[in-house]
Amino acid sequence: MKRVPQDSTRAVDVGAALGHVDRLLQSADLSGRDRNALQSVRDTLAAIEADAPASLPTYRELFNAMPDPVTVLDMDGVVLELNDAALRAFRQPRDEVIGRPIHELNPDLPRDHMGPVREAVNRGERYLTEVTNKRADGTRFPVEVHSARLDYDGHRYVVAVARDLTSRRSGELRYRELMELVDKGILIRDETDRVVHANAAAMRMFEVGDQPVDEAFRREHWLIINEDGRELEADELPAVLARTTGRVIGSTVLGYYHRVSRRLIWVSVTAVPQFAPDTDRVQQVMTLFSDVTALKRDSSLFDRAQALAHIGGWEWEPGQDRLYLTDEAQRILGREPAPRTMDELLGSLRESDRRELRDALDAALADTGELDVEVLATRGDGHSVWIRMIGESDTNQPLQARLTGTLQDVTERRQGEETLRVQSRTDPLTTLLNRDALLSELDVRLADPTQTGVAVLYVDLDRFKVVNDLLGHAAGDGLLASAAHRIQHAVGSEGLTARFGGDEFLIVCNTRDDPGRPQRLAQAIVDAFNPSFRLDDDDFNVTASVGIALASMPGTTAQALIQNADVAMFESKRRGRNGWQLFTQPMAEQQQHRLQLENKLRRATEKGEFRLVYQPQIDLTTGVLVGVEALIRWKNQTLGEIRPDRFIEHAEATGDIVGIGGWALREACRQMREWLDAGVSVPRVAVNVSYRQFLAEDLAGNVRAALEEHRLPGAALELEFTERVLIEDVPDTLRAFAALRELGVALSIDDFGEGYSALNYLRRLPIHGVKISKLFVEGVPENDSDVAVCRAVAGIAQSLGLDVVAEGVENERQRECLRQMGIATGQGYLFAPALQPDEIEARYGRLLTTR
C-alpha cells in the first residue's frame, strides 16, 4: 500500500504548495469559511517563502495547522493519512484509522461511494457531498466534504476536507422554531412556485385544516383580488414578483377568497426572495401574511370586493338591536329601506326560518360563539332569496356583546340542490316518480296510524315487448312516455303515480274517503288505453292489465302490498288482459302455495330431490341415435311429483334457476362420463340453459369446469337457449357464445319461432342449430300454416348452415313430412319418451358399441 511520506525533516516544496493553494482559491464553490482558511495558509506559505529556507515548516506542521479534518485517501478510499483535526473528530487512535477503508469508519457511506469521487477528481474537478461521520463512541455528526486530487511523487491521491455542519443544522432548527412561534402567517415557496412549508399561523389564518400544504394553497383553490376588487393574474402576485425580480415586495393588501368554503380573508402580504449561496439565483420565496380583515370591514373598497364574490358583511349589537349591513348585503336582501335592526331582518323570513335564525343568534351569544344558517327571505319585489348567514361573537369586546359575519346569496346553489333532489326522485323518461321515491312514500303512509285504507295499483302494459322488439328501443321509450302520460291523466290528483321499472307502473291512493277509488282508477287506466298508439305512421293496440291490493290489516308492509298487487295483475293477464283484478283471499291462498313451492324449491338441490331423464334425438332418415336431451324432474316428499312447467317458472322468477341449471349441467356431464366408461357411446347430451344463468354468472367458466371435472370434450355437450337469451344483452351474449364455441360446445336455440325477434339476432350469433317448437310440429302435415312455418324455418336454417331438430314428433306422417323438408333430426314419442339413464343404456348401448 502506498503511503504519503511522513519524514518530519523533509522540507515541503513551498512554491508547489503555493501553486496548489492558489488553484483551490480560484474555485467558485468554496464557502467563505474555507476561503478564509486557505487564504491564511497561503499568507503563511508566502511569508515562509520570503524568509530563509531554514525557517520552512515541515509537512506535518502544515498538515496539522489546518482547522478542519483533512484525510488523505488512495483512489480506492483507503485512509493513508489524516491530520490532528480529523483524529479529534473521529476520536480514535491514529493506528486504528490508518489503512482502513473510509466506509468502515463511516457505515452510512455506500461501498461504491468512491466511484463518483474518482470520476470528478480525475477530471480535475472538486467533489462536494454531505454525509454523516461516526465517532468511536458511536455518535454521529453531519459534515460537508470537499474532495480534490493530489498528485505527489508520481502517485495520485484524494484529499478530503470535512466541515462540521452541526452548528448550521442547529441554526436551521432554531429558525424553524422561530417560524412556528411568530403570529404572522409564513409560506415558503420553492423556485417552481410550489409551497414547501407553511407555519401554524398560516394554517390557522387560511383555515386549511390538515391538508398537505401544497394542495391547500394551490392557485386554483383561491380567487385573489386587490383592493379594487380586480382578480390578479399569476404574474402579479407578490411571491411571483419577488421570485422573478429578486426584490422584496413590500406590504400589499390582497383578498383571498376560497372557492369551496366561500370564505374571504383580507391579508397584508410581504414577499422576500432568498438566494442560493454565492449566486444571484432566487432559491425560494418567503411570504409573510397579516390578517387585516377586521380593518377592512367598514371600508367601501371592502364592499366592492365582497360584491365581486356576492358576499355581504353584517354586524349586530344585540344590546341596542343595531344592525349594520354592507352595500352588498343590502343588495342581496333587496329591501327598501334596508333593515336596521335584527327584528326587521327576521321579519323578512318565513316563520320556520325566523325561529331557526333566532335560536342560532341566541346560541352564538350565550354558548357557541358561532352561527352558520341558511334561511329563505322575501325581497322587496316579492321574490324569494336563500341567504347563508355566517357569524361569530367578537371576543375582543368583553364589555359589549357583538356578532359579525358574512351574508351570501345561495339561491342558485339551493335551486341546484333542489333540482338534484327532484331528479333523484324522478324517472327521467316519463317524469313520474321513480321506484325508490314511491317506496319511500308508501312506507311513510303505511307507518302513519292516521293513514288508514291505503291501496296499490300495479299496472303492466300488454304487448309492449312486441312494439319494443319490432321498432326498437327509441320507439319503445316513446310508447312508455305516452303511456305514462295517459296513466297520470287518468289518476290525476287522486293518487301518486310512479314508473316501477320497464313497462310497469305503480299507483298509491287512499280509500278512507272513497272505498271504491282503487277500482274506479283501475278502470280509468284501462279505458285510457282504448285509443291505439300511433308510432311511425302505424297504429299499435297496446293495453294495460291492472292488479289492485288493499292494506286492510295494520302492519301490512310495502313489499307485501306490492306483491299482492303484482299477483292480482298476473291474474288479470291470465284472464285475457286489458282489465283489472282485485287481490282476493283465493289469490292469497294461491300466493301462499306459491311461497311454499318456492321455499321447498330453494332446498331441493341440497336435498337431492332433482333427477335428470333423457329423451333420445333420432336421425329421421336412418333412425340412429344422434344425441339425447337432458330433462329435469322434481319429486318432493310433501308435494309429490311437480310438473317442470310449474316449478321452472317459479325458479326463473326467484332466480333459483341459476343454481338448478348449474346442477343440471354438472349432472348431465357426470352421466355422460358414466355412459362412456360403460361403453355406451351417446354422441352428445343437450342441456337447457336459462337466460338468468347468462346474467348471474360466468357461464363459459362453469361449462369449462364441468367438462374438465368429468374429462369430456366440448363436442360431447350441447347447450339449448330460449330466444330470450338472444335479446337480453347482445354484446354480452356474443362474448359468451364466442367463449363457448372455443370450448367446442354446440349451441342451439330452443322452441324457435315462438318469440318475436329471433330472426333479427339469429344471423349474428355463432350457433349450430335451432329446434322447431312442438307447437308447430303437431299440426304437420294437416295444418298448412304449421307446415309453412316448419318449411320456412328449415329453409332459413339451411341457408345459414344450421342444423334443425323437430320436437314433438309423434307419428310416421310427421316424420316423413319433416324429412322431406330437409329436417335431419327429430325427437318425440314416436321414438321414445324421456328415459332413465339405465333405459338409455339398455335400448341403445349394444347397438352403438357394436356399430
TrEMBL record:
Superkingdom: Bacteria
PROSITE patterns hit by this protein: EAL (PS50883), GGDEF (PS50887), PAC (PS50113), PAS (PS50112)
Domain GGDEF: 452-585
InterPro entries: Biofilm_reg_signaling, EAL_dom, EAL_sf, GGDEF_dom, Nucleotide_cyclase, PAC, PAS, PAS-assoc_C
NCBIfam families, sorted: GGDEF, sensory_box
Residue stretches making up the PAS domain: 55-124
Domain named PAC: residues: 127-177, 371-422
Name of protein: EAL domain-containing protein
Domain EAL, residue spans: 594-848
Gene3D superfamilies: 3.30.70.270, EAL domain, PAS domain
SMART domains: EAL (SM00052), GGDEF (SM00267), PAC (SM00086), PAS (SM00091)
Taxonomy of the source species: Bacteria, Pseudomonadati, Pseudomonadota, Gammaproteobacteria, Lysobacterales
